[in-house]
Specification:
single chain; Aldehyde Ferredoxin Oxidoreductase,  A, domain 1; 3 domains; four-stranded mixed sheet; 17 strands; globular; binds iron/sulfur cluster
Length: about 625
């Protein structure tokens, strides 16, 4: 087989045994890599119905088809487990040298079963598996842990996935980090911490064999050249944060915990402001010629020295969404989340929820008492110092930080139960995952994409904000096209997440990002890598199958139609300002769009998947378990 080794490494963390599973080429043609293959490995290896923190929930890695080849932005891996945050599929993606090392070690995927009995650093050295004591790594941040491992093992080429103190402390939305990039969202870090797994390192010394190296080099060269052109210019110069002024103009920039969609100080927290005052350099994921990550530093004030990569999603969550207009506080907050290893979106949105609780009198100053602030905190919107103190309490599980470390869904339930309040009304999450930086009240196709998304409120999995924001749909109303549009944009995004290729390359094939522009070029890359004969239709099916395996997983874990819902605020509480003022997504509109979406997918009225469809997609074994 070309492009793959055909082998998946299984490791039992409890017994310390490992074994190799070989997979047939046909299996790879269906699941390809990234989030689809990782989700399929999870489907095969989880104990169905187990609690996310039970030993039956494995950690599944899947490499990309282009990882370790010259194909630009193809150095990524997928990571899947049942999410401690949502209870459904937790599928993440990270651009990383770790994935290249894993492929060079000879593994297309890796499944870690059960739990360690003490803190462990797992080291996969080509074919050898070592269990190392991780005590010396405890208390270290994500980047420090990677460095300490390289130093201890004396090899700069060793690549690691790590958790920081947030994972050790079981913050429910802790991340897994590698090479400064995060396999974020859905709380992988909490599961790793629960399994006492501080880090997984890999050293790979083999090559990656492709079918037609000459053709693949030429195709890759052409795409890399085009990736230096105008189609990626905004990412290269300003990074994704350059979108902030646009979302503000459209009135969909989450502001003060999604109470409004327009932030009066948007200029001060824009990508352009960041570029002028804080940017120190740009960095790139592995195998990437674009380099969109803007390393930014605080140069003055109490947070001087804080430095991390800033992108739009982290920025909205920790600036406008908290009413914070001091970029220095936003950078400090994002530095805490990256360094200590928690999801910056969920952290920011959870602090935003707490700020609203404070302003509405549900939480009081004394509720925020800590060792550093025994008198408590005045957690008003805009108070950057207090927000930073609360982020540290979350990390350390101190005082109310313990509750906030659970994310908005669980935290609001705990507070409402204790105080008889209704703070769930401003807990902005979908299936338990905090929403990303596009307020969906006035992006109605995107609202549908979020409600039906398998991992919850995620902008990466549903790309339906794009047609709404570009005016291809009337974003303030609903109509009979929305089911198809939401399904198409989700499946389109899933192609990129499965190969995986970074979506920012999408215009660099032919200048057009649509299927007609990109799929034939992607088919050429796949064929030169593997020797297969993929065309437009086969590429299109990659996304359909990825969405199907993830949905099938959720169905087997107990999903029902009621789980496809939106935050209370988006259904009942309109903005007062901006182009989206007075708009909500009503229950009737949501139900109408959901039916259209299920229909567009070829599912039943209740959102279940017919057996024949699963069989047609090559998933007969899945059909036997969940098909109707
Ligand atoms: S464009 Fe940005 S996100 Fe995409 S691979 Fe490159 S550095 Fe990573």
């Amino acid at each position: 087989m070309y492009g793959y080794s055909g082998k998946v490494l299984h490791i039992d963390l409890k017994t310390k045994k490992n074994w190799v599973e070989t997979k047939p080429e046909e299996w790879y043609k269906i699941y390809i890599g990234g989030v689809s293959m990782a989700s399929r490995l999870l489907w095969e290896n989880i104990v169905p119905g187990c609690d996310p923190l039970d030993d039956g929930n494995p950690i599944c890695f899947a490499n990309g088809i282009f990882t370790g080849t010259p194909v630009p932005v193809g150095g990524k891996f997928g990571l899947a487990s049942k999410s401690p945050l949502t209870g459904f599929i937790g599928d993440s993606l990270s651009g990383s040298w770790f994935s290249i090392a894993l492929k060079r070690a000879g593994w297309d995927g890796m499944v870690l079963h059960n739990s360690c009995d003490r803190w462990t650093h797992l080291f996969v050295d080509d074919e050898r598996v070592q269990f190392n004591d991780a005590t010396y790594l405890l208390g270290k941040g994500t980047f420090e842990t990677e460095e300490a491992i390289r130093e201890k093992l004396g090899d700069e080429q060793i690549r690691s996935c790590t958790i920081g103190t947030c994972g050790e402390n079981l913050v429910r939305y802790a991340n897994v980090t590698n090479d400064g990039r995060q396999a974020g969202r859905t709380g992988h870090g909490m599961l790793w911490g629960h399994k006492k797994l501080k880090a997984v390192s890999v050293r790979g010394t083999h090559g990656v064999k492709v079918f037609d190296p000459k053709a693949l080099n030429q195709l890759s060269y052409d795409i890399s050249k085009s990736a230096q052109g105008k189609d990626t210019e905004k990412y290269r110069i300003f990074g994704t944060s350059t979108g902030l002024l646009n979302t503000n103009k459209l009135g969909v920039l989450p502001t003060r915990n999604f109470q409004e969609g327009v932030f009066e100080d948007a200029e001060l927290v824009s990508g352009e402001y960041l570029d002028k005052h804080h940017k120190v350099k740009v960095i790139a994921c592995a195998q990437c010629p674009i380099a969109c990550e803007q390393m930014s530093m605080v140069k003055t004030g109490p947070f001087a020295g804080a430095m991390t990569g800033i992108e739009y999603e982290s920025l909205f969550a920790n600036s406008s969404n908290l009413g914070i207009s001091d970029m220095r506080a936003a950078i400090k907050l994002i530095t805490i989340s990256d360094h200590d290893g928690m999801d910056s979106i969920t952290m920011g949105v959870t602090i935003g929820w707490a700020m609203e609780c404070y302003e509405r009198g549900v939480l009081k100053k004394e509720d925020f008492a800590s060792k550093a602030h025994p008198e408590g905190l005045e957690l008003n919107f805009g108070n950057g110092d207090a927000a930073v103190a609360v982020a540290e309490m979350i990390r350390d599980q101190e005082g109310i930080g313990k509750i906030l470390s659970q994310g908005t869904r669980i935290a609001s339930r705990m507070i409402d139960e204790e105080r008889g309040t209704e703070s769930f009304k401003w807990a902005v999450n979908t299936k338990g995952l905090e929403s990303a930086g596009y307020d969906a009240r006035s992006l109605k196709t995107f609202a549908l994409g979020l409600a039906t998304g398998t991992r919850g409120g995620c902008h990466n999995r549903s790309a339906a904000y794009d047609p709404d924001m570009k005016g291809e749909t009337n974003r303030l109303t609903v109509d009979e096209t929305r089911g198809r549009v939401a399904a198409d944009s989700e499946e389109y995004a899933a192609v990129y997440d499965t190969l995986p290729l970074c979506k920012f390359i999408r215009r660099c094939f032919t200048g057009k990002a649509d299927r007609a522009g990109a799929w034939p070029a992607i088919a050429n890359l796949i064929n030169a890598t593997t020797g297969w004969d993929f065309g437009y239709d086969e590429v299109d099916l990659i996304g359909v199958r990825a969405c199907t395996i993830k949905k099938s997983f959720n169905i087997r874990e107990g999903w029902n139609e009621k789980d496809d819902d939106l935050p209370w605020r988006w259904k009942h509480d309109p903005f007062t300002k901006g182009p989206g003022a007075n708009t909500v997504v009503t229950d009737e509109e949501l139900e109408y769009m959901k039916k259209l979406y299920y229909q567009a997918k070829g599912w039943t009225e209740e959102g279940l998947i017919p057996k024949e469809l699963l069989i047609k997609l090559g998933m007969s074994d899945v059909a036997e378990q969940i098909g109707v």
